[in-house]
Amino acid sequence: xxxxxxxxxxxHLAGTLSPAExxxxxxxxxxxxxxxxxxxxxxxxxxxxxxxxxxxxxSLAAVMAEEDVPARPVRH
Length: 76
Prior knowledge:
Elements: H1 3-14, H2 19-31, H3 33-66
Helix pairs in contact: 1-3, 2-3
């Protein structure tokens, strides 16, 4: 995958593209099946990376609730 494509896709998923870049990505997603597939792969990879963290956070919150431990805000 080209570095620029990866950058565009990553920032597209994060919602940080300029209007011109957003237009380019929308056009490429509509007209380039390979670009759309790369976007899907990046999105799936990012989701897979978040799942273990979210599952751990949820299980920790459940344990803390059972132990009556006061919850504190999670910093990212």
